[in-house]
């Protein structure tokens, strides 16, 4: 998946399949069923890049013809942390590639007046300080929710955190870079800007509503 765009801890995917699927994710005529499937598929494709630097170790195996050395992942502990509720749409796609990862949940919603995150739920693996954590949320808009989620994880001892969103904008990226300069940000697409209501333009609307068919 080379050709991706890297800039100061920001990785924007440049794979044709991701671009193709995100076009239909953005399309307002895409129904909830197809939207969920596309979010899952893009999350799986992004997981390929997010796990690119996992350490390997050599093991000896027997093929049908001979004995040989080959490589397997060395047992690094991973955790997937969706930000509720929209982040749930990306979990299965990630688990398709890293099925042994533990899954925690952080519940945050954005106050419609202040646009600031409000926490209402948290359940994490007990050993977050030992894991490489992948925080997932389909949209990185103002960055407030992701910033708060990452802060909470660090307060619990997490030291290695990546943020993965399907769609983002410069304002959200700047928020994370300012507050958490150690965190790598992975985006499927970097859109133009935020509007006055804190939504990404051109964007895809409200990811949670489109995933679950609510208003």
TrEMBL record:
GO annotation, biological process: UMP salvage; uracil salvage
GO-annotated cellular components: cytoplasm
Gene Ontology molecular-function annotations: GTP binding; magnesium ion binding; uracil phosphoribosyltransferase activity
Alphabetical UniProt keywords: Allosteric enzyme, Glycosyltransferase, GTP-binding, Magnesium, Nucleotide-binding, Transferase
SUPFAM superfamilies: PRTase-like (SSF53271)
Transmembrane domains' residue ranges: none
Protein's name according to its UniProt entry: Uracil phosphoribosyltransferase
The species this protein was found in: Gottschalkia acidurici (strain ATCC 7906 / DSM 604 / BCRC 14475 / CIP 104303 / KCTC 5404 / NCIMB 10678 / 9a)
